[in-house]
Amino acid sequence: MSQAPVIFWFRQDLRLADNPGLCAAIDAGQVIPVYILDDVNSKPAMGSASRWWLHHSLSSLNASLGNKLNFYKGDAHHILLKLVQQNNVKGVYWNRCYEPWRMQRDTQIKEALKKELSVEAHSFNGSLLWEPWQIAKKDETPYKVFTPYYRKGCLNAVPPREPLAKPPLDEASLHCLLSSSETLNSLALEPQIKWDDMLAPHWEIGETGANNRLHAFLNQSLQHYKSGRDQPALLDTSRLSAPLHFGEVSPNTVWYSALQTGAAIGDEKNLDTFLSEIGWREFSYYLLYHNPEITWKNLQSKFDAFPWKKESTSPELKAWQQGRTGYPIVDAGMRELWQTGYMHNRVRMIVGSFLVKNLLHHWHLGEAWFWDTLVDADLASNSASWQWIAGCGADAAPYFRIFNPVLQGEKFDAQGEYIRTYIPELSALPNKYIHKPWEAPVDVLNSANIELGQHYPEPIVELKASRQRALDALASTKEP
Length: 480
Ligand SMILES: Cc1cc2nc3c(=O)[nH]c(=O)nc-3n(C[C@H](O)[C@H](O)[C@H](O)COP(=O)(O)OP(=O)(O)OC[C@H]3O[C@@H](n4cnc5c(N)ncnc54)[C@H](O)[C@@H]3O)c2cc1C
Hints:
Rossmann fold, deoxyribodipyrimidine photo-lyase activity, DNA_photolyase_N
């Protein structure tokens, strides 16, 4: 082993187990573990709820590294080159990221390290099961539709790498450059809004928490995932999206642990559905890699002329953000988001459709709100999902398929449990009216202590008329 130190640069891989870049760095020499909050290059800037999660995730990682994590804030290019020069570093190691701004920055850093300092950067795959350039159609072009991408492309490719064990770490293998006064708190990472009181009770952040979550899900919910995953009151999904985004657990660990549990319980159907959701995450990264413009540009250009409202100050947008549209399933979802930093997937689809179709607002406005308030905000999944819901994506739900929030609520939250959790003011309403309080007779509203417009809003749009308005807008949108 060489005596000169190497840098391991933590990014979206805040874990020790199954971390290929970290394992390689430890094999190469004494490691300086580094995290850089790069607000200079990031586009878009990290959202508020994500910063809250990151703060806790870094604290947890630092503890598992024996308080030897070196935190910095600023331009990663500048900081890394300076660290390499000042510490006679012989190599820099990291796991790859796929956001366009990160890929561009990392390429420049790699070149500068080599050209200016003759130091090699070594990058690894620590975040995806299949590299985006690895999967292609027979004619070598990228897939545009999920099912063939996943079933023909991924499942017939080389199987994902099996997870690696935690590398051996002792006192001597890690090197801290910071003084004891330079703590994580000095990065002023925490956002302006104090999320702790609201969000903290819902999450166990960090690598241990992620593994606890994974095993609780596999033991308790995998066997009814296929039907349970659509019912927001059941808590039958894994809630691993934030741990996967921050890399507290790798997709490889999730994939192989699920395969193992699925085989043990002999359950093909539920396992297959769960693995295909992990496949959707892969597909989002695939789309982002092959279409970096997905974050801001409609993948179907005919939607460029669509008459979506774009004002970020509109009263309807405010009502949507605050969970005050008068449609209980929409409002429950938006309040779940605000109170927990998370929203169930079925409800994300309902609130998304409501915003871009019934309220006719641009998907960018929904995407931006989710970006700021989701703890799992992820450039690939968020952009691809908003394009999907808006109908303008590669493999999107057709625009004319407009979710009816009342029918969706009645189907997926039949007993109104989800509504009652997040809209306590409606809790005494009978199930018959819980998804459409405006249809309840006055005596029913009275005995449930509800005055519409006072305790809970009247609907801000009428469903039938707003649906027709959306369809008319679509009809007026011509191919360029
Ligand atoms: C409008 C909209 C915006 C979204 N924004 C995000 C986002 O910013 N970040 C994010 O991680 N997911 C996003 N999703 C996808 C999905 O809603 C979440 O991944 C899922 O709800 C997370 O819950 P879970 O971990 O319990 O999922 P599970 O059902 O347990 O699924 C397991 C894992 O598969 C992945 N996954 C599941 N569904 C999808 C999907 N449709 N697309 C991509 N990956 C998926 C996630 O990593 C998830 O953790 C969005 C969906 C919609 C409709």
